[in-house]
Amino acid sequence: MSLVFYVNGVIQTLDARRGPELLIDYLHDELDLSGTKFGCGIGVCRACTVSARIPPDTAPVPVISCSTTLDMIDGAQITTIEGLRLPDRLRPIQEAFLRHFAFQCGYCTPGFVMAAQIFLDGLTDTGTLPADLDAAIEAAVGSHICRCSGYVRYYTAIRETAENIVFRGD
Ligand code: FES
Ligand code: FES
């Protein structure tokens, strides 16, 4: 029996006995993808958030990799911060975070970026109205913890990127 899933488009085939291992350990130790950060380790801070399509043809959802085992993502498409950029440029949310200097130490930033991108991916599908944007952003990233930057610049960058989708259809 095997576990099969994809990380940033690359297939991973493992012995099913490895199912109890944590996703974040697999990303760090076997794929050398250290952009996903380990914070609390108990599912609270969300620094370890990655994007997952489970099954692969569904909309992406945030997954807390410190508390997700490999058997929980069997068949999934996982995207980490390393796999987020487009082939020739950064994503608009990454550019907005840089433009607004939204982070200080940056430890929580990958989790914020991943959650924000999942939110933006679903924005047109959910039919979010401009008046509801602030509440929708709060719902998407409000549980992420940042210990040093405050949250205002993160929210500004996400709102600006979301407005481009809602108002201009970028
Ligand atoms: S490290 Fe804090 S939720 Fe995963
Ligand atoms: S920028 Fe340092 S924890 Fe958020």
Number of strands: 5
Spatial order of the strands forming the largest sheet? 2-1-5-3-4
Query: What is the CA-atom radius of gyration, in angstroms?
Result: 16 Å
What is the CATH class name of the largest domain? Alpha Beta
Structural category is alpha+beta
User: Which small-molecule species are bound to the chains here?
Assistant: FE2/S2 (inorganic) cluster
Give the CA-CA distance, first to last residue. 44 Å
Strand content: 5-15%
How many structural units, i.e. domains?
2
- Parts with pLDDT < 50 across at least 5 consecutive residues: none
Name the helicity range.
25-40%
Mean pLDDT: 94
- Could you state the order of secondary-structure elements as H and E? EEHEEEHHHHH
Examine the coordinates and then state which fold CATH places here, giving the name of the CATH topology of the largest domain. Answer: Ubiquitin-like (UB roll)
Looking at this structure, what is the CATH superfamily of the largest domain? Beta-grasp domain
Biggest sheet features: 5 strands, mixed
Can you describe this structure?
This protein has 170 residues and is α+β, with helices and mostly antiparallel strands. It has two domains: 2-83, Beta-grasp domain (Ubiquitin-like (UB roll)); 92-168, Orthogonal Bundle (DNA polymerase, domain 1). Helix content is 35%, strand content 14%. The protein has six helices and five strands; from the N terminus they run E-E-H-E-E-E-H-H-H-H-H. Strands 2-1-5-3-4 form a five-stranded mixed beta sheet, with helices on one face. Strand 1 (2-7) and strand 2 form a beta hairpin. Helix 2 (92-99) packs across helix 6, helix 3 crosses helix 5 and helix 5 (133-141) packs across helix 6. The longest helix has 17 residues, at 152-168. It is globular. The model has no long low-confidence stretch (mean pLDDT 94). The site of one FE2/S2 (inorganic) cluster has 10 residues, from loops.
